[in-house]
TrEMBL record:
Cited SUPFAM superfamilies: MetI-like (SSF161098)
Region (Disordered): 231-260
Ranges annotated as spanning the membrane: 30-52, 64-85, 201-223
Protein family per UniProt: Belongs to the binding-protein-dependent transport system permease family. HisMQ subfamily.
Membrane topology: Multi-pass membrane protein
Keywords: Amino-acid transport, Cell membrane, Membrane, Transmembrane, Transmembrane helix, Transport
The name this protein goes by in its record: Amino acid ABC transporter permease
Organism classification: Bacteria, Bacillati, Actinomycetota, Actinomycetes, Pseudonocardiales
Main location group: membrane
Length: 260
């Protein structure tokens, strides 16, 4: 029992590694996750628009991308991008592994975000598209100005949850050998463990992940519940002050009106 406690709950080891975890580790983890999520949102939205395109030759490459990046283990994708690209002479970010880490995690998240956006966009009633087209808008303009904004609102909790996933997936970039100053939580813990052969540093890193992600998870669940309650119809003829307002569609070039 004593050996077990010493291996996983050595207070001196935890206190020794905690400043690096809370300073350098947490900062770089959030940088990687945040920038990767921004990249994932941009690429994911583009992929979602291609996935719902009526033209098969636009849907096909988007579907292949989503299936490949969702099918590959994240650790394989990180290795292919962070190690494979520089080895092949494709040095997009010079010698800095941080850029490759953000690119890898961002492209992984883009595949999942694309499906989130697609489901959100397709959940918008077809009448919204018809209303936009009846105003003389093109299919693309209708999607971008009418359907997509409503679809994004429908999936905001799922997108927030994807950020939590990106935070945890950032631990895989330790494979790229981040330099001092660029290390994330797991890499710092792994280096400390390799020196002391004590797993308490991993426990400390796990605690930091938990303290950050668990409250954020509950916040996302609360936000999702509020959105669902806001969209819940009420019985009788009375209105509900908390109900979501009807969606808006563009009217000419000057204003908006409530959608059907």
């Amino acid at each position: 029992m004593g050996d077990f406690l010493h291996s996983f709950f050595d207070i001196h080891q935890i206190l020794a590694v905690l400043p690096s975890l809370l300073g350098e580790g947490l900062r770089n983890t959030l940088i990687i996750a945040s920038l990767a999520l921004v990249l994932g949102l941009v690429v994911g939205l583009l992929l979602a628009l291609l996935l719902i395109s009526p033209r098969w030759w636009l849907r096909l490459p988007a579907r292949v991308y989503v299936d490949v990046f969702r099918g590959l283990p994240a650790i394989v994708t990180v290795s292919l991008i962070g190690i494979g690209l520089p080895s092949a002479g494709v040095r997009l970010f010079g010698q800095s592994p941080m850029g490759y880490a953000i690119l890898a995690v961002g492209l992984i998240n883009a595949a999942y975000i694309a499906e989130i956006f697609r489901s959100g966009i397709q959940s918008v009633p077809a009448g919204q598209t018809e209303a936009g087209r009846s105003l003389g808008m093109s299919h693309l303009s209708t999607q971008l100005l009418v359907v997509v904004p409503q679809g994004i609102r429908n999936v905001l909790p799922a997108l927030a949850n994807q950020f939590i996933v990106a935070v945890k997936e950032s631990s895989l970039v330790y494979l790229l050998g981040l330099a001092v100053g660029e290390r994330e939580l797991y890499f710092i813990a792994q280096q400390a463990q390799s020196i002391s052969y004590n797993s308490s540093s991993f426990v400390a890193a796990g605690l930091v992940y938990i303290v950050f992600t668990v409250p954020l998870t509950h916040l996302v669940n609360w936000f999702d519940k509020r959105l669902r309650e806001g969209r819940r119809p009420t019985g009788g003829g009375g209105g509900d002050a908390t109900a979501a307002p009807p969606p808006l569609v563009p009217v000419g070039a000057t204003g908006f009106e409530a959608g059907a």
